[in-house]
What does this fold into?
Amino acid sequence: MYRYDEFDRRFLDERVAQYRDQVRRRLAGQLSEEEFRPLRLRNGLYLQLHAYMYRIAIPYGTLSPAQLRMLGHVARKYDRGYGHFTTRQNMQFNWIKLDESPDIMADLASVEMHSIQTSGNCIRNTTSDPFAGVADDEIEDPRPYCEIIRQWSTLHPEFSWLPRKFKIAVSASKKDRAAVHVHDIGLYLVRNAEGEVGFQVLIGGGLGRTPIMAKVLREFLPKKDLLSYLEAALRVYNEYGRRDNIYKARIKILVQSLGIDKMREAVDAEWAKMDHTPLDLDNETVRAIIAHFAPPAYAAVGKDDDAVFQAAVASDRKFARWMKYNVAHHKQPGYAIATVSLKPLGTPPGDITAEQLDLLAELSETYGFGEVRVTHEQNVVFPDVRRSDLPAFYNALAAAGLGTANIGLASDIIACPGLDYCTLANARSIPVAEKLGEHLADREEEVGPMKIKISGCINACGHHHVGHIGILGVDKNGEEFYQITVGGSADEQSAVGGIVGRAVSSDQVNDAVDKLLDVYVRMRCEGEDLPATYRRVGPEPFKEAVYGAH
Amino acid sequence: MVLIKGRQVVADSWRHLDDSDPLPATGAVTISWERWTVERGTIARPRAQLGLRIPNTVTTAVIGADADHCGLIAVAFPNFGDGRAFSQARVLRSQYGFRGEIRATGNVLRDQLQFMERCGIDAFEVPERALTEDWLAAFSEFDLFYQPAADSRPWIARQRAGRN
Amino acid sequence: MVYRTATGAGLPGQFTIRAPNESEPSAVTTETKLYAITASRLRDGAVIYFAGKQTWSVKFADSAIAPDGDALLAEAAAGPPPLEAVGAYVIEVTQAEGIIRPVGLREEIRAFGPTA
Ligand code: SF4
It folds into this structure.
């Protein structure tokens, strides 16, 4: 993974000092709340329902053992012993004090972590495929490019006060595990006809009030041009993006109103005027960054590896089930990618305690090369587990309550914090997720792959639009109701789900979801996921199941 | 109002005319962009005596074309969140080679000064309290930068490669 | 302005009523809408309530309540250094048998903590 050098370290120290002074000025009354708010937001500090919420960047989701332990330390010392992984590969703490926040930031800096630009109308944390570098179907490791973008976008003097937030994702696999289509800019590493690797550039995706899938801005961008082209796109957005209406300020609305062709013209025109040379990525720079992500020293496959593993599968049903759902194919023979579910039944999705963070740190050293990845689906990936170690690894997880075998199933629910923590919420998400997960656990194997996503308001942090089943909290005269959508998808087939009917009360959610699943199970063809069935049969059977014939 | 230029507090040598003020025969004056678009045909002034105050809604291509006529361009920051003038300044410097003064006006905040300076703004109209609150220190809060901008400062990728 | 105050900690329903300091007439009936003022405390973001006489409290039950929310808000704003209370606003409350409760789930969660 990327390790800081003296420049990165000194830069971060300067940032901590600056923030400490900003907090001092606020507490001394030199800054009004109005003036201070954008400053704290750019350092990830929100004022939420009960306290300050602190959002820490996990660049492209990667964490070292020292960083995991530091998050555990922050949870214990400054919070209430737990943290929350978000749908953008960040970590949030919910019970933070403003006057302690500079100390937290300094503690984080000691392990090369920060919270820069995790909020505010600026370029946010760049996200990526949690299987980057180990997936068997990727063209090239996307993480070095994420890191290059991270550095370029950090305290960018021109693009720190954009019309609205700006999110970038990079992926290199055919299977999209990074929800690239719902980002302001999405980058796929692709190969052109000449065999050269570059980027397909997508623009204008996003969820929220107006869910839109990104469109192709450029089919092939040479790697060398990555930053100059991003800069051209950002400049067009900074100049032309709407600032009169917060709901129309994202770049997706600009792309929609101009049309993708005009947008492309504008970006290309800006790009043509710019002097690219300062931003051109030379091979030397790229190679130096890539070196940070060199594959670890994998061991050769042992003679008995498979036997150990097969014996465990045969003798332990729970392990066999975990293998089936939580373990994915690794590009290196003898290794596997294992996903630790943070969705044990009846707990808030994505929450993790200080003790669990410590345990994951330790396990990442024993069963891997000291690295884990946080996923946008709020789970944790161990990228390099030896297949022969899987039984022992599983047992260690299970002993700590982290052995839930439900990745990709109905109880692997994505949910935002909702009204229990968030000032913007209309309704609660966490209790709905907890109850629904427990309710569906019995039938989730029969149902098969299923993505259920819950947001507490239209801001869609829980990505409900792209859930196979999406659940959106709405407020009706002070009461919580839930609007259900069906058929959405966040992968390469990305689609926004269709609304099933009028919103239901919280105690009707389980029943409504059951009925939708019944229709899917009854009508699906071999190998079809719910969005595919929905595309084929249309919304009517689903509507009828929930609301009866009309 | 206090004027900072070249990281120092200085006296303002420009007169800022209302649209109804007559244009004096000589002396450094700034006029609004609107007035300029109407009267440009009749204004013949040495560059050093003409400044333009541009709203942040005018696109850089349009201003850039006229930048040659003036010695000062005042860009506007109507509120802290509206960052259009960062791009205006950057483009004026980097693409149109504008060498005159670019002045930040409006709601200029201490914590944006260094960003503004990096985008090519070299003069700043700041409130009186800047004097007691040591705003000049804000220009040197960072001495490392991750990206090139309109200033000539080195950036980290270059420094790593040993090329300043 | 008429204040009713009650103390108590923890969950709704567990409030005890503080004996009125003075023999205040009980001018407030249950039919009258009642309001309190809440904000976040600057230094730690804690939920605070205007408790009258230029003070704020972390306990909901200490809230000063009155039928005129805007007047109460003005009084709170005139209070101690405006620094302490960030984003003060009026909330509706109910009062029954001397126990006050916030109206609406959002304010209940703010007053008594997350539900899950
Ligand atoms: S979706 Fe709404 S309720 Fe949920 S975290 Fe985002 S803003 Fe808050």
Observations:
- The first helix of chain C runs from residue 69 to 77.
- Residues A 416-418, 422, 424-425, 455-457, 459-462 surround iron/sulfur cluster (CB under 6 Å).
